[in-house]
Amino acid sequence: MNKTDYKKIEYYLYNYSNIDKLIDEIKDGLINSVNVSGSAWRKGITVCNNTLENQVIKIIENKKILEFKRWQVLIKKVLAFLMQKYPKYYDFINLKYFQKQSKDEIEETLKFDFKKQKIIKDKLIEFVYKNAKMRNLV
Hints:
Blueprint: H1 3-14, H2 19-33, H3 38-43, H4 52-61, H5 63-85, H6 87-98, H7 103-110, H8 114-134
């Protein structure tokens, strides 16, 4: 795994709870970038691309939205697995990435020293990477 993949996985972990908001922002940007008019619909697709149907297609086919949704599903499955099999690792992800607690706060809560936190973090990132690679996300 290279540094770019590592950072990408961390980005999606840190932003997991905001993915729906990020998708909505992209949708709003697409909707606001196109002026839908009644005359566009009457003229037909061959003349003008500002129809409501074309906007919906742009939203559905947007690669960034699809990527966000695929990462969201992957992380959700990883979290379900960790919660069931490795609850301490799940707690670590929750504290570090979702609640954005410091290393000291994590140490106080989970009793993981800095060295163990680094090891767990690397293992978790590697686990997510392997699952992402199977789904062609990295």
